[in-house]
Amino acid sequence: MTFEHIEYLASAGRLEDMPPEGPHEIAFAGRSNVGKSSAINALAGRRRLAFISKTPGRTQTLNFFSLPDGARLVDLPGYGYAKVAKSQRAGWEALVGGYLAGRKALAGVVLIMDARLPATPNDREMLAWLAPIARARGVSLLTLLSKADKLTRNEQTRALASARRALVELGLDTDCGLLSSKTGQGVEEAREVLAAWLAPHAEARNKTPPVKGFLPGAKRLNRD
Fold this sequence. Notes:
Blueprint (H helix, E strand, L loop, with lengths): L6 E6 L12 E6 L5 H9 L17 E5 L5 E4 L10 H17 L3 E9 L6 H17 L2 E7 L6 H17 L5 E4 L8 H11 L4 H5 L18
Parallel strand pairs: 2-4, 2-5, 5-6, 6-7
Antiparallel strand pairs: 1-3, 3-4
């Protein structure tokens, strides 16, 4: 699995505008301006594949990117930005919620959290909402702490521990990893995890290889 030749595929502002179901998809979720687009760019080894805005809440569509083998990455609109109209926020929630709950091609979700402030109330709400969907459908889940370059090594360790505690409190048997789009920290490790998710057989996805720099786990949520 290679991530170096990802191409933009389509954007959808409504569920009915999404590309047809088909290849496996991995969705990237996170608070507004947390670094989802930067994470996708880092994985692809590109600077401007996914649009990066300094204005929180600007991304309002599901943005699809195609990998060489046909699999897709999906950049979801950010959540938790209060300075928008309630009707607009409700529309975003319906779009994201409808995608995550109903997209048959969804193989995994990467939740991006800010390493400087991991597991905010909005993040916990998202994880709590996503957990039963992931368990019921066998969807993989990984959390990445973005902007890790802004922390010292000791601060990174504490951020990982804090995020891990939040996951345990929510009953999630998944993993955290540090990520920096500027230094490349954690990028190759994340690629290995996602490549395992996109393996052609479910058994292969369940055998995610151990990855240096990640906490034990990074595995698929079991079905109840």
